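Write out this protein's structure.
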Amino acid sequence: AISRRLGLIQWIENSHTLRSLIEQQWKKENTESDSLLTSKSALLHRNFIGGWSPSPTSVDYRNAIIRHERSSAVGAYNLQVNAFGRHHLLRALAGCSLSAEKYISLRQGVLESLAILSGACYVAGVGDRHLGNFLVDLERSSVISIDFGLVLGMGARLSVPELVPMRLTPQLTNLLRPADGAAFFEKTLARTLALLRDHSLSLRPLLNMLVSEIRASVRSDRVPTLAAQLMEDKLYGFRSPGEILMDE
């Protein structure tokens, strides 16, 4: 470790993943099932995809994209959200707080740091951002991102490609209720992207390191070169996120 806050390998005490916080709270409030995989929300998801296996395949997802239109996908998503609930993370953080002041600090700190991480991970093309790869540091009221195995848009090359650059579900936007969590996230994200753009020269060593990592894992020299260009496009806003995603 270089310091208490910086190091290649570090054990973070008093921390939990977003998944574990949400899952533990969900289990306290639900008697219908003892596993998220058999919850009503999960069953609705598998029904929409078209497979009843706990782990739908890439073929299942491909067929679902072909079979459903956007309105159908949005409707299915809302059904799953309503079946699962929107406040498990909020209640979990309340249970971790010993005072009202800590509760307020934890709610805002988690959403603020998540917005900052989302901006940084979007620019760097960090993938695999599932709930198990976000640690909540209860002591410092912040979120820490872990596991950077997929960078510079490599998540879009998976058999089930990652098409959404960041996570922002009702579990997260409801953290600041009754305030507007989505608006707070948006403002923080915009400031983060502006700061990254203003200090883009400082990111050059990071870009070079990421390109070297990709070059060592893929056979084509074109892939890391294109990935580096896409990172610059994100950083400077040369093109829309949709166009960049198509290239990824």
